[in-house]
Write a structure and sequence with these properties.
- The complex is a heterotrimer.
- Chain A is α/β, with parallel strands linked by helices.
- Chain A contains twelve helices and 13 strands.
- In chain A, the strands form two sheets. Chain A has an eight-stranded mixed beta sheet, sandwiched between helices.
- In chain A, strand 12 and strand 13 form a beta hairpin.
- In chain B, 37% of the residues are buried.
- By secondary structure, chain B is mainly α.
- In chain B, helix 5 packs antiparallel against helix 6, helix 7 packs parallel to helix 12 and helix 9 packs across helix 11.
- The chains are: A alpha/beta, B mainly alpha, C mainly alpha.
- Chains in contact: A-B, A-C, B-C.
- Chains B and C meet through helix 1, helix 6, helix 7, helix 12 and helix 13 of B and helix 5, helix 6, helix 9, helix 10 and helix 11 of C.
Chain lengths: 330, 332, 333
C-alpha cells in the first residue's frame, strides 16, 4: 500500500474574472512515490505552478476557486485541514523551493534568520540550537563558510548561493515532499547543473520525494524518475523518464523533445510547435492541442480525448498516440 | 552601517546648508542696491539729506557699511555662534532668542500631529490592507480622495466655527496668556492641550488619512511579493508573516514619508496657527512679515531650512539602518 | 527640418496624446464625471460675467451687508462689504483654475525637460540638476512666498512663479527614475545603435514613454496647487483686488462670519475649493488606474466574488470531469 507518498485526485482550479473564467487546472491526478523524483512538465501558462501552490494550499480564495477530491499525504487527506493545521504541515512535511531566490527571500532579514525560522516554528528548540542546525543545513548544500554566510543578506550572495539557501531552507526539517518550482530557470547554465546536483543528491540521500516543476526537458532528463506532461490545465501524458524520451506517445511531448538542442544532432532545423499555448480563458473545442498538432483529425477538433491508462505509470490523452507498437496499446 | 556612507551624507548636508545659507543672505538684498533701503524704506516726509543720514546710521547699526563680501563672512561667522542677528522689535531682541521662545509652542502642535497621524494611520492602514476589498478598504479610499480636497485650514475653520463658537467646547482663539503662565505643572499642561486640541485635530484628520492610505498601499504591495509566499510556505503563522515579514518591509516607504513631513514640522502650521491665534513660529513669522522685520524673517527661514536638512539626514541614515540593501556592501 | 517645424511637430504629438487620454477618460465612468466637473468649472470661469447674478467688482451692485441666503442672494452677502457671495463663488473659479492650470502645465514642461535630460544625458547635467532639486526641497515654500511677496509685492504672478520654480522638482525626480528605466529598453538602444541623435531619441522615444506619467502627474499637481493657492490667498499673499476662494475664507474669518454664525460664507468658498480639487484629483486617479491596471483589477476581484453564482461555478467544475468535457461551455458570467 504505502509506497505512495502523495495522492492528488481531481484537482481543479479556476480564476473568475470580469471577462470570463480562467480555467487554470482542469481535473488532474498525480501520484508521487516515496523517495521518487516526479517532474511536472509544460510550457508557461499550463497550470503547473498553480498546481504546486494548490497542493500546499497556498492559493488564496479570492482570486482562486479550488475543487479537489483528495490531497492525500502519507495517509492523511490534507485538503480539509484548517489553516492552523496546514501551518504544521507546511515547512515540516511539505516544503517548497521557489524559482527566483532573489525575490523569494526577505531582503531585510539575514539568510540565517530565515532558515532559523523554519526550525523554530516546527521544533521546540532554542535560538542557538536552531542556528547550529541552520549552519549545518548550509554546509550540507555546499555553501562555504556557513557561519559567516548565515549572517549575510540575500543581496550579498551570488545567484547560485542564494538558490542553495532556498534548498537548505526547504530541506531543513527533512520534509517528506519537496516541491521545486523551476528551481534553475533563473540561473546560468553552469550554475544550473551544480544546483540540480545538490538537489538530486540531497533528495536521494535523505529519501525525500521531489516534485519538480519545469518547462526544461533537459532538467527532467537529468533528475526525474517519473514525468507528467501538462498542457492547458490537463495531464496529457504520464511516463517513466526513459520511456518518455525514447517513445513519447503524445504529439506535444514529441514537439517538446524535438525542440531540445542536442550536440549529437545532425538536424539542421529545430522542430517547432506552431502558435502558442491557448489563452486560459478561451480554450479550443475538442482536444486542447489540436490547433498545433500536425496529426490533427476532425475527431480531435470535436472531442476531448480521455486520459487512458495503458500500463502502470503510463497514461496518454490522445486518440491517435504515437510510437504505439504492433500490439496497439490502447 | 559603513562609515564612509555616513560621512558622505553628512558632508553633503553641510554643503546644502551652505548653499541655503547663501541664498538666505542674498534674498533680502534682491531688488535694491542699498540694503539699508530695505530695512528703512524712504518715508514721504523726509528730505534727501535726512534720509541719507538715517540710511548711514542704519548701515552702521546693521553692519552694511562694509563690503558685501565682508557682510557675508560676518553673517557666516555669526551663524557658527548661533547668532542670527537682531530683530527690529522693541529692544532689538536676538532672533535666536525669539525663535527659542516660540519654537516649543509650534512643536506642541506638530509633534502631537505627527504622533497621532502616524500611530492611528499605521493601524488603520494595516487593517485596510488586511481587509482588502471590504468596507474598511473602500471607506479609506473614499476618505482619501475627499481629504486631499479639504485643506487643513478649511477644516480648521469649520471646527473653530462649530466646536469653538457654536458649541463653545474648545477655545476658538487660544489663550495667549498660557504662554507666560507656563510652569511644568500638570494643570499647565492640561491648559495647553485644551487650547491645542482644535488645531491639532484640524491637522491630524488629513494626516491620519494620508498615512493610512500610504500604509495600506505599501502593505498590499509587499504582500504580493514572493518572499511573503515563502514565509507562508514555511508554515509560519499569519501573525508572524505579518509582523516579521510584511510590515518590516512595508515600513520602509513610510519612513521616507515621515522624513518628508519632518521637514515641514516647523513651517507647516503657519496657517493653522494664524487661525487659532496660536503663538508659535508661524505667527512669529507672520508678525515679522507685517513689520518688515527682515532679520527675524530670514532668521526663521534659515532655521526652518536647517531643520529640513537635518530631518532629511536623519531619515536617510535611519532608512539605511533599516534597509540593508542601501549601505551594506555588495556581493562577496 | 527647421527648428520651428520640429518643435511644432512635437507639440502636435503632445496634443494628440492628450486627446487620446481625454478619450480614454471619457470611457471610464468615474473619469467621465471628473472630466465633466472640470469642464463645468472651466465654463463657469470663462463665462462668469454672464452667469453670476451680480458683479462683485462693481461697487454699485453691492447690497446690504451680512444678508442671509435668500432668493435674491442665493448665498447671502458678505458682512464686510455687502457683495453677493454666490457671484463671488463663481468668479473665484477664475483665479483657482488659472493658477492651477498655468502652474500645472509649466511644471509639466520644466519637470519633464529637466527630468529627461537628467535621466538620459546623465553625468554632470544629472548631478547639477539633482543637487538643485535637493536644495529646493529643503527651503520651506510657504515662508519663502511670504518673503518674496513682501519684497516684490503681492500678486498671483509671483505666486505662480514660485510654485513653478519650486514645483518642478518633484516631477523631475519621478520622470528621471522612469527615464533611467527606459534608457535600458531595447528600442532605445536600437535607436542609439542606428545613430539617432540624443535630441531625437529624447523626443521621439523617451518623451512618449513618460507622457502617460506626465499627464497623470499634472492632473494631481494641479489639484495640489489649487489647495496651496487657497492657503496663500487665505494669508493675503495674492492680489488683494482679485476674488479668490482663499481670500473669501480669510475675509469671512476676519469679518466675523464665525462669530455671527454666517456659516454659508465659510462653506461656499470651501465647497468651491473642494469641487475644484476633487475633480482634478478624480481625473488624476482615474488616469493612474488606466496606466496601472493591476491595482484596479485586484480590487475588482473582491466585488466579483461577492456576486458569484455558485451553481454556475459548480457546473464549470463538473464539466472538467472525464466524459463531460464535450458539453458546450457557456461563457456568460
Amino acid at each position: 500500500m504505502s509506497n505512495i507518498l502523495l495522492k492528488l485526485r481531481n484537482l481543479k482550479v479556476i480564476f473568475p474574472a470580469n471577462q470570463g473564467i480562467v480555467r487554470a487546472v482542469e481535473g488532474i491526478d498525480i501520484d508521487i512515490a516515496k523517495g521518487e523524483c516526479v517532474a511536472l512538465v509544460g510550457e508557461s501558462g499550463c497550470g503547473k505552478s498553480v498546481t504546486s501552490l494548490a497542493i500546499m494550499r497556498l492559493l488564496n480564495t479570492p482570486p482562486a476557486l479550488i475543487d479537489v477530491k483528495e490531497i492525500n499525504l502519507d495517509g492523511e487527506d490534507i485538503s480539509k485541514y484548517s489553516e492552523t493545521k496546514m501551518q504544521t504541515v507546511r515547512g515540516k512535511q511539505i516544503s517548497m523551493i521557489f524559482q527566483d531566490a532573489m525575490t523569494a527571500l526577505n531582503p531585510v532579514m539575514t539568510v540565517g534568520k530565515q532558515i532559523d525560522e523554519v526550525y523554530l516554528k516546527h521544533n521546540n528548540i532554542s535560538k542557538q540550537e536552531a542556528r547550529k542546525q541552520t549552519i549545518e543545513a548550509l554546509r550540507l548544500v555546499g555553501i562555504p563558510e556557513p557561519e559567516s554566510r548565515a549572517k549575510a543578506f540575500p543581496h550579498q550572495l551570488s545567484g547560485g548561493l542564494r538558490q542553495r539557501v532556498l534548498i537548505a531552507m526547504a530541506f531543513a526539517c527533512m520534509p517528506k515532499l519537496i516541491i521545486a518550482d523551476e528551481p534553475t530557470t533563473a540561473l546560468d547554465v553552469t550554475i544550473q547543473a551544480q544546483v540540480l546536483n545538490v538537489l538530486s543528491q540531497m533528495q536521494r540521500s535523505h529519501n525525500v520525494s521531489l516534485l519538480l516543476i519545469t518547462h526544461d526537458l533537459s532538467v527532467v532528463a537529468h533528475t526525474a524518475d517519473l514525468v507528467y506532461v501538462m498542457y492547458a490545465g490537463k495531464i496529457v501524458e504520464k511516463a517513466r523518464v526513459e520511456d518518455l524520451f525514447k517513445k513519447p506517445h503524445h504529439p506535444y511531448t514529441e514537439g517538446l523533445l524535438g525542440s531540445i538542442p542536442r550536440l549529437s544532432d545532425s538536424k539542421k532545423h529545430f522542430i517547432q510547435i506552431p502558435d502558442s499555448v491557448p489563452h486560459p480563458m478561451f480554450k479550443p473545442s475538442g482536444c486542447y492541442f489540436h490547433p498545433r498538432c500536425k496529426y490533427v483529425t476532425d475527431k480531435c477538433k470535436e472531442l476531448m480525448p480521455p486520459l487512458v491508462k495503458i500500463d502502470k505509470d503510463r497514461e496518454i490523452r490522445c486518440f491517435y498516440p504515437l510510437n504505439v507498437d504492433k500490439e496497439g496499446k490502447l | 552601517m559603513q562609515r564612509s556612507f555616513v560621512i558622505k551624507r553628512i558632508l553633503y548636508a553641510i554643503f546644502i546648508f551652505f548653499v541655503v545659507l547663501t541664498l538666505n543672505f542674498f534674498i533680502p538684498r534682491l531688488g535694491v542696491n542699498d540694503p539699508a533701503e530695505r530695512y528703512y524704506p524712504p518715508q514721504g516726509n523726509m528730505s534727501e539729506i535726512e534720509y541719507e543720514i538715517i540710511k548711514q546710521v542704519t548701515r552702521e547699526q546693521y553692519g552694511f557699511d562694509v563690503s558685501t563680501f565682508k557682510q557675508y563672512t560676518n553673517y557666516v561667522s555669526g551663524l557658527l555662534r548661533f547668532d542670527l542677528g537682531n530683530s527690529f522689535k522693541a529692544d532689538n531682541p536676538k532672533v535666536s532668542d525669539l525663535i527659542a521662545e516660540r519654537l516649543p509652542w509650534t512643536l506642541v502642535l506638530s509633534v502631537s500631529n505627527l504622533v497621532i497621524s502616524l500611530s492611528i494611520g499605521l493601524i488603520f492602514g494595516t487593517v485596510a490592507a488586511w481587509k482588502r476589498g471590504r468596507w474598511q478598504d473602500s471607506l479609506l479610499l473614499n476618505l482619501s480622495t475627499i481629504s486631499v480636497a479639504l485643506p487643513a485650514f478649511f477644516i480648521a475653520l469649520i471646527l473653530s466655527f462649530y466646536f469653538g463658537f457654536e458649541l463653545e467646547l474648545f477655545p476658538a482663539y487660544t489663550n495667549p496668556n498660557m504662554v507666560s503662565q507656563f510652569d511644568w505643572s500638570l494643570d499647565a499642561i492640561k491648559v495647553v492641550f485644551y487650547n491645542a486640541a482644535l488645531p491639532i485635530i484640524s491637522m491630524s484628520i488629513g494626516g491620519i488619512i494620508g498615512y493610512s492610505q500610504r500604509t495600506r498601499n505599501s502593505v498590499i504591495a509587499v504582500t504580493n511579493e514572493e518572499f511573503v509566499l515563502t514565509a507562508r510556505a514555511k508554515g509560519l503563522s499569519q501573525n508572524k508573516v505579518l509582523f516579521k515579514h510584511t510590515l518590516r518591509n512595508a515600513m520602509l516607504p513610510i519612513v521616507t514619508a515621515v522624513g518628508m513631513s519632518l521637514s515641514g514640522l516647523i513651517g507647516g502650521a503657519v496657517i493653522i496657527e494664524q487661525i487659532f491665534n496660536w503663538n508659535g513660529m508661524g505667527t512669529l513669522f507672520l508678525e515679522a512679515n507685517n513689520t518688515n522685520d527682515y532679520p527675524l524673517m530670514m532668521g526663521i527661514m534659515l532655521f526652518m531650512s536647517t531643520i529640513a536638512i537635518l530631518a532629511n539626514l536623519i531619515v536617510e541614515l535611519t532608512y539605511s539602518l533599516l534597509d540593508p540593501r542601501i549601505t551594506v556592501g555588495e556581493k562577496r | 527640418m527647421s527648428i520651428i517645424k520640429r518643435i511644432s511637430n512635437r507639440l502636435i504629438d503632445i496634443l494628440l496624446s492628450i486627446w487620446e487620454f481625454i478619450k480614454k477618460l471619457w470611457r471610464h465612468p468615474k473619469g467621465r464625471v471628473g472630466l465633466i466637473m472640470v469642464l463645468f468649472l472651466a465654463f463657469l470661469a470663462v463665462f462668469a460675467p454672464l452667469i453670476a447674478p451680480y458683479d462683485p467688482y462693481d461697487v454699485t451692485q453691492r447690497a446690504a451687508k451680512g444678508l442671509s441666503p435668500s432668493w435674491n442672494h442665493l448665498l447671502g452677502t458678505t458682512i464686510t462689504t455687502g457683495q453677493d457671495i454666490f457671484s463671488m463663488l463663481i468668479y473665484g473659479t477664475r483665479v483657482s483654475l488659472l493658477v492651477g492650470l498655468v502652474t500645472g502645465i509649466a511644471i509639466a514642461f520644466l519637470g519633464a525637460i529637466l527630468g529627461i535630460i537628467a535621466g538620459y544625458v546623465g553625468g554632470l547635467a544629472d548631478n547639477t540638476i539633482m543637487r538643485i532639486v535637493d536644495v529646493m526641497l529643503v527651503i520651506p515654500t510657504l515662508p519663502l512666498t511670504i518673503v518674496i511677496t513682501n519684497l516684490f509685492g503681492k500678486s498671483y504672478f509671483i505666486i505662480v512663479l514660485i510654485f513653478v520654480v519650486f514645483g518642478w522638482t518633484g516631477l523631475a525626480r519621478v520622470v528621471r527614475s522612469l527615464v533611467l528605466v527606459l534608457k535600458n529598453s531595447n528600442y532605445v538602444k536600437a535607436s542609439e545603435l542606428a545613430g539617432g541623435s540624443r535630441w531625437h531619441i529624447m523626443t521621439k522615444h523617451i518623451l512618449p514613454g513618460v507622457s502617460h506619467l506626465l499627464i497623470m502627474n499634472t492632473a494631481l499637481t494641479c489639484a495640489g496647487i489649487m489647495v496651496a493657492e487657497a492657503g496663500l490667498s487665505f494669508l493675503g499673499l495674492g492680489d488683494p483686488t482679485a476674488i479668490s476662494w482663499g481670500k473669501m475664507l480669510a475675509d469671512a474669518q476676519s469679518g466675523g462670519a464665525l462669530l455671527f454664525g454666517h456659516w454659508w460664507w465659510i462653506m461656499a468658498p470651501g465647497i468651491g475649493i473642494f469641487i475644484a480639487v476633487f475633480s482634478f484629483m478624480r481625473i488624476g486617479l482615474v488616469m493612474e488606474e488606466i496606466l496601472n491596471p493591476r491595482m484596479k483589477a485586484s480590487s475588482g476581484i473582491y466585488k466579483l466574488f461577492k456576486t458569484l453564482n455558485n451553481t454556475y461555478i459548480q457546473e464549470v467544475f463538473a464539466k472538467m470531469d472525464e466524459g463531460n468535457e464535450d458539453l458546450p461551455k457557456g461563457e456568460a458570467l
